[in-house]
Amino acid sequence: MSASASKESQERKAGLSHSLWEVLQVSLKLGLTSFGGPMAHLGYFHEEYIRRRKWMDERSYADLVALCQFLPGPASSQVGIGIGIMRAGLLGGLVAWLGFTLPSVLALVLFAFLLKGLDLGDAGWIHGLKLVAVAIVAQAVLGMGQKLTPDRKRVTIAIAAAAITLLWQTAWSQVWIILAAGVIGYFLYPHPQPADLPELRVPVRRSVAVVSLLLFFALLIGLPLLRNVASFHGLAMFDSFYRAGSLVFGGGHVVLPLLEREVVPAGWLPKEDFLAGYGAAQAVPGPLFTFAAYLGAVMDGWYGAAIATIGIFLPAFLLVLGTLPFWAALRTNPSIQGALVGVNAAVVGILLAALYAPIWTSTIHTSIDFVPASLLFILLVFWKAPPWVVVIAGAVGGTVISFWS
Prior knowledge:
Low-confidence stretches: none
Distance between the termini: 79 Å
Number of helices: 15
Radius of gyration: 21 Å
Helix content: over 70%
C-alpha cells in the first residue's frame, strides 16, 4: 500500500471514529433528556439533529419518520437508528440506539430490583403508578387522534380498528388490522407525486439490507418453532419479546397489550407488577420499549433484562437497516403516502383499545380511582407538567387513597 493510500485510510478511520463519537454524544444527551413518549422524541430529534446540527434536511427527516411509522417497532428509536446509519454507517446506527436507550434501561432495571425487595401486596403507591398509566395513555390517544384522525373517514378507521382489536385478540390481529387499514388508505387518500425530493444518502449496500430483512423473517418464523422443540426459558423469553417488537405498530404505548398477553397469562409476572412498571416507565426519558428491560429484570435479573431488551429492539434495527436503502425510491410513490394515512388512523384505534383493556379495566374500579386519574390527566394535558412530576404525584395520590379507603 502506498503512503498516500495509507494516509487516506487512516483519515477515513479517524473520520469514522469522530462521527461515531459524535453520534454517541448526541444520542446519549437525547436519551437522558427526552421525556414525553415517541411523539415528543421526534420533536427532540428534529431540534437536535435537524435544526441544530443539520445532519439531514427537513424533507428527508419527514420521510424517514414516515417510513419508521409504517414499520412495526418503536418509531422514535427507529428514527434515531436511521439517522445514526446515515451519519456513520451500520455502527452509527448501533451507537445511536445505545446512547438513546441505555439510560432508561438502567433506570428501569434498578426499579425492578427495588420492587423485588418489597412486599407489594396492595401498596398504595403501586396503584398510583397504575393511575398514571391511565393518564399517560389517554394523553397519547388524544394527541395522536388530533393529528392522525382529523376527518370522519380516519375517525371511522380508528374506531373500527379499536373494535376489532378488542374483539379479536390474537398475536397476529394487529398485523391484519394494519394491513387492512393500509389498503383502505390506498383507495381513500391518493396523493400527488412529490416533486424535487432531496437525495436520501444511505451508506449501506442493498445486499446488506436484503440479508437484514431475511434475518428478520427467519427469526420471526423460526423462533416459535425452536421454542416448541427446546425447553429453555431464555429462548421462550427472547421469542416473546422479539415477536412483540416485530408485530407492534405505533410505538411504545401500543406494545402494552402485546407484552401483557405474552408475560401475564404465562405466569411470568403478576398484572400488578406489570402495570406498576409501565407507570414507572413514564418517569424516565428515552423509548418506552425499554419497559421490556423492567419486565426481564423482574423475571430473571440482569440476564432477563438483557434478553428482553435485545429481543424487543432487534426487529427495529433489522427493519431499518433492511428498508433504508430502498426507501429513496419508494418514498416518491403516492400509493405509499396514501397507505400511511390509513395505517396511522388504525394506530390510534389500537391505542384506544389498549387504553380500555387492560389499563382501564384493571385500574379504574370506583369513583375514588377515577378522580385522581382525571386530575393526573389534566396535569399532563392542560398544565403541561413533565411526566416525572405526574408519576410522583400519582404515587403520592395512590398512597393517600390507600389510607382513605
